[in-house]
Amino acid sequence: MKKIQLMILIVLGFASTTSCDKDFEEINTNPNAAITVPSGLLVGDVVRNAGNILYSTFVGGDMGACWAQHFSKVQYNDEARYIPRPAVIQDLIWEGFYEDVISDAKSIQTIALTEENATMQAVGLTMQAYGYSVLTDMFGDIPFSEAVKFDEGIFQPKYDSQEAVYDGILAMLDEANTLFNQASGELNASSDILYDGDASGWQKFANSLKFRCLMRISGKKDVSVELKDIVENRPVFTSNADEAKIIYLSADPNANPIYETVVFGPRNEWKVNSTLIDFLTSLSDPRLGVCAQPLEDGSYFGKPSGLTDVPSPTYNINTVSSIGLHYLEATAPGYFMSYSELQFLMAEAAERGLIGGDAATFYNSGIHASFMANGLSQEDYDAYVGQSIIAYSSGTGLKLIAEQNWIGLFAQGVEAWTEYRRTGYPQLTPALEGAIDQIPSRYTYPVQEQSVNKANYEAAVGSQGADALTTDVWWMN
User: Fold this and answer.
1) Residue 369 included in any domain
2) Of all residues in the chain, what percent carry a pLDDT higher than 90?
3) What is residue 323's DSSP assignment?
4) What is the b/e burial string over 13-41, where b = at least 16 CB atoms within 10 angstroms of the residue's CB?
5) CATH number, position 250
6) pLDDT in tens, 258-303
7) Of 272, 303, 321, 447, which has the fewest beta carbons less than 10 angstroms from its beta carbon?
8) Range of the domain at 49
9) Whole-model pTM?
10) Cα(383)–Cα(86) distance, rounded to whole angstroms?
11) Average pLDDT in the chain
């Protein structure tokens, strides 16, 4: 009897299994679950990931603001002495930008294409272009034409020359501008943490970013025609309200990464560099009180870059001025590109005859934008630009512009370091007791590339030069 019952159970079980398989997909599909994520819902993560990498104290602080001599450190000083952490380069920068920014931005573009949403395609292209521009400025030659093509079976992408990467970036931004002009499709305002669903803001960002990219390579190519086209025919930032920046939230883990490390951490080893304090003091610049906190006696005291013996009686948490409270706010913005930077780039372009317009006007506009972003008054600005040492002079124009841009880029570590590498201003002295005798020209490639992508890595090194911090990237030569 038990054998018969067992046989019946087996037969019934087999029958039920085969009958369930008949309409398995239809019956077991959750009608409330999304099969494809709408492109608009991906924007927030892409933007936040890019901002969090660049504003991480281990990237924008250690290997940006310290190298640009805005920040200095009174403890754990290796990076400031030009000894980067391989894990930060591999995991946070290389993989972070390729996987969490560029690849996801490409997904936005791909999904938006199926949605017939031209606006979202343009957003995806803009963020890919931004991600590639940051990476190539950090490393030089990088995977581009074969990058993030896992779906095509490419797991060992070749490295493209920086010139080719920039050609590709500029083409992406041109395509983005064309798609924005179609005004077809919408943005998800709740997910768009950069422009709250305003496509015109994104278009201004794309074109302002193109202006930056053209100026970056302007020492290697004649880019005047393209620059003039932007100025004459395309929308760009016209005020601080247009700039590309994340407004972070008031609490961890969605607060500004500098706040999360220095205040919420709390880790107080990031301080203000003596180079910045001395420079601002020499100009009677009221931004000093915004960038730095005074000591108990009301004075400002910075630490020079480098030194192995820290903390010391002279340079420690209590003796060196802290980063200004304005920049330690949880809700302090994270900039991708500011209006003041665009104005300084336009001032340089006008001074060099690459565009029309008055260089002095652009220069003063850049200073004004920086003052307003730092919470200073019109009276502060008027008094500052009224000084002869600040007044624009064509004879020293390029130096004045670059130095003011360097000030305006305070806490925008990677961009400040990159613009210093491009212009050579202000004239900085390498870190004391540094591991190398010059300010780094680039990051070294992730160590893992030497094994997982060995042939292409070696080809890049053979083309570009030694995989060293001292090897210039293409636009520096």
Assistant:
1) yes
2) 91
3) B
4) eeeeeeeeeeeeeeeeeeeeeeeeeebbe
5) 1.25.40.390
6) 999 999 999 999 999 999 999 999 999 999 999 999 999 999 999 9
7) 447
8) 39-259+328-476
9) 0.92
10) 46
11) 93
